[in-house]
Structures are given as structure tokens and as C-alpha cells.
Amino acid sequence: MSLQKPCAYCGLPSDKRDKEHVFPKNLYPPSKAGSKIQRLTIPACNKCNNSWANDEVHFRNVLVVAGDPTTPVRIELWNTTVDRSFSQVDGFKRLKDLAEQMKPVNVSGQDRHMVYPGNDARVVRIIRKIVRGLSYYHDISWPLPDERIFVDVLKSRV
Questions:
Q1: Cα separations (Å) of 23 from 56, 108, 132, 158?
Q2: How far apart are CA 142 and CA 133, in angstroms?
Q3: pLDDT along the chain (158 residues), means of 10
């Protein structure tokens, strides 16, 4: 019988152990499949591993919409995984969730809509997950409860 490390998120032992990507795998377009950062994995129980799936997709979609529209990685993500995700069974809900994050603003005399990732609870949840995963990976402290992770929102215009 092999000893498995406990879940990096909850610390509980489990017979079935998955490998969880510290940084959501869906953040990387096909052209970045060989990234070493993308390959950072940690042990996670099925319950923890599966609990972030929908939020990770939302996290990716929000970051893609909030990002610079001319960035090659953003364009590739939009043209591949993001656009394709809207045609899935839950695609309408994903699109609706994203549209709800858009806020009307006036930039240089033009009306636009912007997304503020730090104001989205699901985005903040994934940021906390990443911090928890990095804490485990670097053997800093684990399991690290969400209450110990402070996520701040940028209050000034970049």
C-alpha cells in the first residue's frame, strides 16, 4: 500500500487522489501547452478538485474579457477555448455570468463596458485557490484556510 500525500486544500486523506493544476489549466491556449508554470500540480481529493471547475472557467472568461484585447494570448484564448465554451450545454449561463460582470463606464468621452475581476466573488475564490496551491507547492503552510488569505481590489485606474 502506497502512502499518498493528503489533499493540499483540505488536508484530509483520501483513497482516490487527483492532481490539481495550481494555475487553472484552461488559462493556457494551445500554443502554450508546454509551459512549465502550467505544469505545477499538487495532490487534491476529488471533492476539492471538482469544486472549482465552473469557477475556473468563469475566472478564465473574466480575465480574457478584462485583458488587453490586442494581446496574442488573449486573442488565442478567445478564438479557441472561450468562444467554444459558449456553445456548450451551459454556454448561455457562462455568457450571462460574464455579461453580469460588465459595468458601464465612460472612458475618454466614450461609453464602454468594463469588467472588474477583483469585484467578482468567483474570481477572488480562484485567486485564493491559487495562493493555497502555491503555499502547498512551496511547503509554506497548508492546509491554508480561505480566512488566512487576503485578496485586495485595485481601487485606482491603471
A1: 9, 35, 11, 24
A2: 9
A3: 75 78 85 73 88 90 86 89 90 92 89 88 92 92 84 64
C-alpha cell at 13: 486523506
Say if residues 63 and 27 touch (Cβ distance below 8 Å).
yes
CA 114 to chain centroid, in Å, comes to 19
Among residues 115, 87, 83, the alpha carbon closest in space to that of 101 is found at 115
Residue with grid cell 480561505, as numbered in its chain: 146
* Cβ–Cβ < 8 Å for 17, 44: yes
Which residues are CB-contacts of 8 (< 8 A; sequence separation ≥ 6)?
A: 20, 42, 43, 44, 48, 132, 133, 136, 137, 142, 143
Taking the whole predicted model, whether its pTM rises above 0.70 is answered as yes
CB-facing half-sphere around the CA of 14: CA atoms within 13 A: 18
In whole angstroms, what is the distance from residue 69 CA to residue 151 CA? 25
CB 61 within 8 A of CB 82: yes
Question: What is the distance in angstroms between the CA of the first residue and the CA of the last residue of the chain?
Answer: 54
User: Which ranges of 1-158 does DSSP label H, i.e. alpha helix?
Assistant: 46-51, 53-66, 72-77, 83-85, 91-100, 121-137
